[in-house]
Amino acid sequence: MVYLDFEKPLADIEGKAEELRAMARKGEGAVDLEKEAAALDAKSGDLLRDLYKSLDPWRKTQVARHPDRPHCSDYIAALFTEYTPLAGDRAFGDDHAVMGGLARFNDAPCVVIGHEKGNDTKSRIHHNFGMARPEGYRKAIRLMDMAHRFRLPVITLVDTPGAYPGKGAEERGQSEAIARCTMKCLEIGVPLVSVIIGEGGSGGAVAFATANRIAMLEHSIYSVISPEGCASILWKDAEKMRDAAEALRLTAQDLKKLAVIDRIIPEPLGGAQRAPAEAIQAVGQEIAAMLAEMTDQKPAQLIKDRRAKFVAMGSKGLAA
User: Fold this and answer.
1) Which pLDDT tens digit goes with each residue over 181-226?
2) Axis-axis angle for helices 241-248, 57-64 (nearest 10)
3) β strands within 106-258, DSSP E
4) What is the extent of the structural domain holding 111?
5) Same domain, yes or no: 24 and 163
6) Which stretches are annotated as coiled coil (predicted)?
7) pLDDT band with cut points at 50, 70 and 90 for residue 117
8) Same structural domain for residues 33 and 93?
9) Distance from chain centroid for Cα 260
10) Distance (Å, rounded) from C-alpha 254 to C-alpha 34?
């Protein structure tokens, strides 16, 4: 388990409990040591509840970025069957930061698309830390076109710090690819649901989340820029990221009030990283519920409702 900065007191308690159990396994005073370990477990449980009872925006940002949170590949493996990945944008190449293809969700055919960050150093480099290049967005466009053609619902799983800002990406039309991907979301006549499972960074997230229904995990974030980037621009000091996180209103709770998202998916105590299977199951239930709300809607109505949702978003937020 990787502990975040604010979880250090918890790490100390859980570490001591594990040390006592290791001593008990050696057979010396096993009963008494187990009792002490159990008391520490109770203490750590109370502390965990206190820590996660009222996380501030910066701490939520840290939780959203936790390396042990389930990633797109984990959700696809657990929630989808007959997943057939499709690669490439038919123009330049394949972007490993974006994964997607045909699959079945609750035994119904669909298209699933998501950002993949990777779970160790090698895979993170391979997936470019979830930062998509133009070919990633063009691959998503190709998949959404296919979904529209065959009347398949689209499910997107968003987890990216933002689109890749490298020179090559800009040369290949990064902003144009993001804009076209966002436009494609508005054009397809099939149900489109999106879940922010970790970070929803900038236009790199919006390009996948311009959906009929948008949900966020309880401790995920969704913002126009990272707190560090915002602090660097506004205060010329990246260390003011805590102030920036507060100002950006990037938490699921704030965004629900502003009508930017439709629902919040509760996470297990201590975040999705502490009980990945439970978090994945909760996401699956919400995806099923969101799709069920659009079962009888015609293509024209889906497109109309999606466009109206985003046109009205600013006014709803101001009214809130």
Assistant:
1) 999 999 999 999 999 999 999 889 999 999 999 999 999 999 999 9
2) 100
3) 108-115, 154-160, 192-201, 213-217, 221-223
4) 61-319
5) no
6) none
7) very high
8) no
9) 15
10) 43
Question: Quick one: 28 and 9 in the same domain?
Answer: yes
Alpha helices in 191-275 (DSSP H): 202-209, 227-234, 241-248, 252-257
- Number of structural domains, the chain? 2
The pLDDT tens digits for 134-156 are 999 999 999 999 999 999 999 99
Would you say the C-alpha torsion 221, 307, 72, 81 has a positive or negative sign? positive
Q: 129's torsion region: left (phi>0), alpha (psi -120 to 50) or beta? A: left
Q: How many Å apart are CA 52 and CA 318, to the nearest integer?
A: 29
Based on the domain organization, do 108 and 217 belong to the same domain?
Answer: yes
pLDDT of residue 315: 67
Same domain, 157 and 47: no
24 and 146 both lie in a single domain: no
Q: Tell me the C-alpha to C-alpha distance, in Å, between residue 163 and each of 37, 116, 206, 216.
A: 46, 12, 10, 19
In single-letter form, the type of residue at position 289 comes to A
Tokens of 271: 């975040």
Identify the bridge partners of residue 154 per DSSP, sorted by sequence position. Answer: 111, 192
123 in the same domain as 39: no
Residue 192 amino acid letter: L
Q: Is the pTM of this model over 0.85?
A: yes
37 lies in the same domain as 87: no
CB 232 within 8 A of CB 238: yes
